[in-house]
Write a structure and sequence with these properties.
The chain is α/β, with parallel strands linked by helices. Helices cover 52% and strands 8% of the residues. The mean pLDDT is 90.
């Protein structure tokens, strides 16, 4: 046995020197003396793998595991060889079997988690990463891989927590930057800002840290901090379109529309803003050319289309022919409003055209600034038949008729932040002399299973087929109450009084600190004073609603 150990030590030393032939010769002699020595077979496995022979390595690591089944390192090495041969399922089965037999280590659990993640079994992967962290709370690889798995599972809060723990373990600028980015994705801007400040302090030359710090400030309307961060990112990386688009958003938020809209054009190079359809005609450069046909296309939020379609009649008045390609739900409304010369839905081809433009780019191409916002309302109107139908339907309601929405589309990641939910706005439904008309459709309707309006109400949510229907219903109301949703834009575009409930980090279009809107003269804005707390703006709005003693449309 002593002689065999001497050969093994000599073989290991030769391997460290890079003398593979010498290492193999000595280990083979050791195994001739003691065939059941697991470490001998392990060294031969390492030699085989280093020679590019994973199959040979797997056979030798299998022998090592048979000699010392309690050693998790041998099972891990065998599994790695199987994985290199494209046999990931067999590798996962091997490691799972080792775990069932009580052969366990943080590294083995993490390896098995990686294999489960490779097969998209994210639930099993996270369980295994957590097991590794129970065995070794500071196991960095497991913490990192679990964070990434949670991100892939679209669990942003859990992923952000995992990346934050990883940043504490690693302490590097890159780790704090990843934590800040994950916290941003979870819309936890205050925590993100703290993490990103640490990232920027540790690694001030990385533009991404500064850009994300800008977005964290933008999400809290910290204008000076955010602009300085975006500027720093662009000095470090002048071609960073993410930072340029972010700075554009910030400048528009601050009321600098012309400069901001120019920067915001950088969004068009980002995957998030790439239109799902390719438009082959040239992008309109802003020059009005009478007789030419401009296609305006809208493929993102309904609110964007409603807000910026206002430019179409201005261009038609200057001699251009304007056509629209956008969501089916807007077509009847836009047709009745006589805004464009032709229109079609996104499921079909666009109308014939000479030049084209995304609808959000009109603010830039038209050179709009704060003192030149085209604010004349109404510029939308519902179809006459729908107007008559809904006027008859709602005509019998008593008192002030207040339309209510409490939840926006879940297609956008900030919906939790901007949508108060029905419970938060219930005080608005119990105001004396007010009948609440529920206009909520889609996701927010689930709230009605848990809460009931406090006073008289009529629920129209299941009867509104499209925006033409919704517009007709709104025209029969006195006021509309909504967070930042397409319905808020619709009410404003119809010239109807609209109370807009805004979170503390509301979108740029509502600007910063204002109680009015340059885009919608009939809008009044009710902003959160404390992030996440709707109590105070809802109470202010409740008092204002109570002051409406008679239906607005009956006033002289």
């Amino acid at each position: 046995m002593t002689e065999a150990m001497e050969f093994l030590r000599a073989g290991a030393a030769a391997l460290q020197r890079g003398d593979r032939a010498g290492a193999e010769r000595r280990v083979v002699r050791a195994l001739a003396l003691v065939p059941g020595h697991g470490e001998g077979w392990n060294i031969l496995g390492v030699l085989a793998v280093s020679a590019g022979d994973p199959a040979g390595g797997e056979a030798r690591f299998r022998r090592a595991s048979a000699c010392a089944p309690e050693n998790p390192a041998y099972a891990r090495s065998q599994a790695e060889c199987l994985k290199r041969q494209g046999r990931a399922d067999r590798a996962a089965a091997l490691l799972a079997g080792a775990v069932r037999c009580g052969v366990l280590s943080p590294d083995l659990a993490c390896d098995l988690g990686d294999l489960r993640l490779h097969t998209r079994d994210i639930g099993a992967a996270t369980v295994l990463y957590r097991l590794a962290l129970v065995l070794a709370p500071g196991h960095v690889r497991s913490q990192n891989n679990m964070a990434e798995a949670l991100g892939k599972a679209e669990r942003p809060d859990a992923a952000a927590d995992a990346f934050a723990r990883l940043a504490v373990l690693r302490g590097t600028g890159a780790a704090w930057g990843a934590a800040g980015a994950a916290l941003l994705a979870a819309w936890r801007q205050d925590e993100a800002r703290a993490a990103l400040r640490r990232a920027a302090a540790l690694d001030p030359s990385t533009a991404e840290h500064w850009a994300n710090l800008g977005f964290a400030g933008l999400g809290r309307h910290a204008v000076a901090l955010a602009e300085a961060a975006f500027d720093r990112a662009l000095r470090l990386s002048p071609g960073m379109d993410t930072a340029r688009a972010g700075r554009g958003t910030l400048r528009m938020l601050a009321g600098r529309l012309r400069d901001g809209a120019a920067d915001y054009e950088a969004r068009l190079s980002l995957p998030t803003f790439t239109p799902p359809r390719f438009y082959s005609r040239p992008v309109w450069d802003g020059r009005v050319q009478p007789g030419r046909t401009l296609l305006i296309h809208a493929d993102r939020g309904y609110g964007d289309a409603i807000q910026f379609i206002r430019y179409a009649p201005l261009l038609r008045a200057q001699g251009m022919r304007v056509v629209f390609h956008g969501p089916e739900g807007l077509l009847d409304l836009f047709r009745a409003s006589e805004l464009v010369d032709d229109l079609s839905g996104l499921d079909g081809p666009p109308p014939a055209h000479d030049v084209q433009i995304p609808i959000m780019s009109l603010i830039h191409r038209m050179g709009t600034d704060l003192d030149s916002v085209p604010a004349a309302v109404p510029y939308l109107r519902a179809p006459d038949t729908a107007v008559r139908r809904w006027a008859d339907r709602l005509g019998g309601l008593t008192g002030v008729k207040a339309g209510l929405v409490w939840h926006g589309s879940v297609a956008f990641p900030y919906h939790h932040q901007r949508s108060p939910g029905l419970e938060a706005v219930l005080p608005l439904t119990g105001v004396s002399g007010v009948t609440t008309v529920l206009l909520q459709v889609a996701n927010g309707r689930a709230d009605l299973e848990r809460h009931t309006p406090l006073g008289p109400f009529l629920d129209l949510g299941t009867q509104l087929r499209d925006f033409a229907d919704t517009a007709a219903a709104i025209q029969a109301l006195d006021i509309v109450i909504s967070p930042c949703t397409a319905v808020a834009h619709l009410a404003g575009a119809l010239g109807k009084p609209v109370a807009v409930l805004l979170d503390q980090g509301a979108e740029w279009r509502w600007m910063c600190g204002r109680v009015d809107s340059p885009w919608y003269p009939t809008a009044r804005l009710y902003r959160q004073a404390v992030f996440g707390d709707w109590t105070e703006p809802v109470e202010r709005l409740r008092r204002d609603l109570a002051a409406l003693k008679e239906p607005l449309q009956d006033r002289p």
